[in-house]
């Protein structure tokens, strides 16, 4: 039986496996609490990238000196089933203490920090300063021909500020990546 003469509703005769719809991809923010020891970061990143997912943002720092733990925040996208698979596999790594899907939390705060250099003169300088006030960006450094702004907030806010600075002489951007924490008394 060929594809040309197959009947609707009949099972496929293909030798290739039929992939089922796993749902739409979504962005996910995972907080991975790990033992602070050599090689842990590469194991976590390797596990995510081995599944074919791009890491859009990655931050890591020691968060408890006494317990010797670090927090790795990973932003990636994937189908719900693939995200659940990644979370389960991360949880099985020996140095991983806990995996939290921050994007699923209703009481989580997310912020990012960016340093943005703008090189310009004349009216563009005035417009850059006016926009920095609107976005609550701080001028950390200023010369006769440049500014370095510090801006903190949601990624959308930072992206909007960057887009507005492009025609005004945007020269360089340095970003931290997403940081997250839950509101209230509950600990991660």
TrEMBL record:
Assembly with partners or alone: Dimer of large and small chains.
Function, as annotated: Catalyzes the conversion of 2 pyruvate molecules into acetolactate in the first common step of the biosynthetic pathway of the branched-amino acids such as leucine, isoleucine, and valine.
The reaction(s) this protein catalyses: 2 pyruvate + H(+) = (2S)-2-acetolactate + CO2
Cited Pfam families: ACT_AHAS_ss, ALS_ss_C
Gene: ilvN
Record-linked InterPro entries: Acetalactate_synth_ssu, Acetolactate_synth/TF_NikR_C, Acetolactate_synth_ssu_C, ACT-like_dom_sf, ACT_dom, AHAS_ACT, AHAS_small-like_ACT
Ligase keyword on record: no
The protein's annotated pathway: Amino-acid biosynthesis; L-isoleucine biosynthesis; L-isoleucine from 2-oxobutanoate: step 1/4; Amino-acid biosynthesis; L-valine biosynthesis; L-valine from pyruvate: step 1/4
Family statement: Belongs to the acetolactate synthase small subunit family.
UniProt-recorded name of the protein: Acetolactate synthase small subunit
Start and end residues of each ACT domain: 29-104
Species this chain originates from: Hyphococcus aureus
EC number: 2.2.1.6
MF terms (GO), sorted A to Z: acetolactate synthase activity
Keyword set, alphabetical order: Amino-acid biosynthesis, Branched-chain amino acid biosynthesis, Transferase
